[in-house]
Design a protein that fits this description.
The chain is an alpha/beta fold and about 120 residues long. Helices cover about 25% and strands about 30% of the residues. The strands form two sheets. The protein has a four-stranded antiparallel β-sheet with strand order 1-2-3-4, with helices on one face. A three-stranded parallel β-sheet has the order 5-6-7, covered by helices on one side. Helix 1 runs parallel beside helix 2. The longest helix is centred in the middle third of the chain and has 11 residues. It starts with a strand and ends with a strand.
Length: about 120
C-alpha cells in the first residue's frame, strides 16, 4: 500500500479548519484536518449524480444558469456542463481559493478540465 503524500494545505475561511491535498500514486484526496476525507479522484459518482439530478429539469430551457456550491475536484461542475447546452452558464461558489488552484494544477484532468469551459464562472 502506497502512503499518502501531502501536496498542499490551506486554511478554510472564518476559522473553518484546514484542508489538505494528498496524492498516492495517480490518486488525489482532499481531507479536512480532524474530519477525514471529503473527496477523492477515484470515487466521485455521488458528485456526478447530484449534477445530473439538479440539471435534468433544465433540458431544453434557453440559457439556463446553474449555481454549484463548492468546486471540490470539479466532478459536479463537469457533470453539470455535460447536461447543459452551449448557451448555459454555470457559476461555482468556492470559498477556498486554494481549491481552485489545486484544480488548475493537479486535479483538472480527472474531470476533463471543467474550469477551462467558457460556460464556467468561479
Amino acid at each position: 500500500m502506497k502512503p499518502w503524500n501531502l501536496i498542499d494545505s490551506t486554511e478554510i475561511p472564518a476559522n473553518g479548519g484546514e484542508l489538505r491535498l494528498y496524492q498516492r500514486g495517480e490518486e488525489y484526496s482532499i481531507m479536512i484536518v480532524g474530519g477525514g476525507e471529503l473527496m477523492n479522484t477515484r470515487m466521485h459518482g455521488s458528485e456526478e449524480a447530484l449534477a445530473e439530478l439538479g440539471c435534468a429539469h433544465l433540458d431544453g430551457q434557453p440559457q439556463p444558469r446553474v449555481l454549484i456550491g463548492g468546486l471540490g475536484m470539479g466532478f459536479t461542475l463537469a457533470a453539470a456542463l455535460a447536461q447543459l447546452g452551449q448557451d448555459a452558464e454555470v457559476v461555482v461558489a468556492e470559498l477556498v481559493p486554494a481549491v481552485v488552484s489545486w484544480n488548475q494544477q493537479y486535479l483538472g484532468g480527472f474531470a476533463g478540465y471543467p474550469l477551462d469551459d467558457p460556460r464556467t464562472i468561479v
